[in-house]
Input
Amino acid sequence: MYGIWEFSKSRMREFVKAKLQGESTGHDYDHACRVFTNAQLIGKGLDIDWEIVEAACFCHDLIDRKVNACSRDALIYKLSQRIADEKVSSVMFIIENMSFSKAYKGDKTLEMQVVQDADRLEALGAVGIARCFATSSRMGRTLSDSMEHFHDKLYKLKDLMNLKVSKELAVEREAYMKEFERRFLNSK
Output
């Protein structure tokens, strides 16, 4: 099965890259790659299903309302060509319940915790600042509105992390953002 997944995941990555081509809010293919890199860092040594984690990391924004790169049915079809049906269900559950706005409070598999934390880490630090401004620009927000988003959402992410290692990584990234905010406010 490992050999089949290796072939299938390269085709899945090609599909995701094509669907996210030209995406300008920081929810692009590079974002998906960074989320997976974060997941590898967070999930190192954990007993998790890496097929589920990798598929969820790469596909998590495809059906997000901000991106809307493909339909839910199309994503399920593509996933079912590459992984077992029970894993498709797991990937879709993660994708459909991991967002900040969803505020899912139920039980989370370890795979979901890793993917959710990996995506949340991507919203913090230097990359998080850049993504915030990219999304704000596309939505017509001002710079001040973007800075308000730090408080409305981004500074809350550290405390929402599921795993200890994620919280530790989030502390450093949040500190970077607070220093950026301090400098921004002092430049007015």
Notes: Residues 2-186 form a domain with the Hypothetical protein af1432 fold (CATH 1.10.3210.50). Residues 164-186 form the longest helix (23 residues).
